[in-house]
Specification:
globular; alpha+beta; eight-stranded antiparallel sheet
């Protein structure tokens, strides 16, 4: 495992026109690598949980509750990755702190096994401390 590949992943997260490309790279380079998972440390930044919840509310147009939130961090690389469940669906997320940008993939229930992909950028926090974010035009569905 070469953690320098996180730099390549970051560039893909920030610039890829095909939002699936960074996900494919992440799973190819790191997904099945036991050393990568051993080096990951448990993380639970509230802002990212809140942001994921807000993305879910934006998608489903109703309040959602994030459950089974499992987020890990690679120390020294400003990189977080993990999964959660809401509305009975699994969401994966990768996020680069130093770029305030990440990706999500959401498994949609129903025929075709669709996956909703999106890119988000953290823009700060509102007066109540909730994250302000922008989801880019890269959000799309795939079968």
């Amino acid at each position: 495992m070469d953690l320098q590949n996180l730099k390549i992943l970051k560039e893909k997260v920030l610039t890829a026109e095909d939002i699936e490309e960074p996900w494919q790279y992440f799973f190819t380079e790191f997904g099945g690598d036991p050393e990568f998972h051993q080096r990951s440390e448990r993380a639970d930044p509230t802002f990212l949980r809140d942001l994921i919840e807000d993305i879910g509310e934006k998608i489903f147009k109703q309040p959602v509750m994030v459950m089974q939130f499992h987020l890990s961090e690679i120390p020294g690389y400003d990189f977080l990755h993990g999964v959660c469940v809401f509305e009975g669906r699994v969401m994966s997320v990768i996020y680069f702190r130093d770029a305030d940008t990440g990706l999500f993939s959401l498994m949609m229930n129903g025929p075709g096994g669709q996956v909703l992909f999106g890119r988000f950028t953290l823009l700060g926090h509102d007066a109540e401390g909730r994250p302000n974010f922008f989801t880019g035009p890269s959000s799309r569905q795939s079968h």
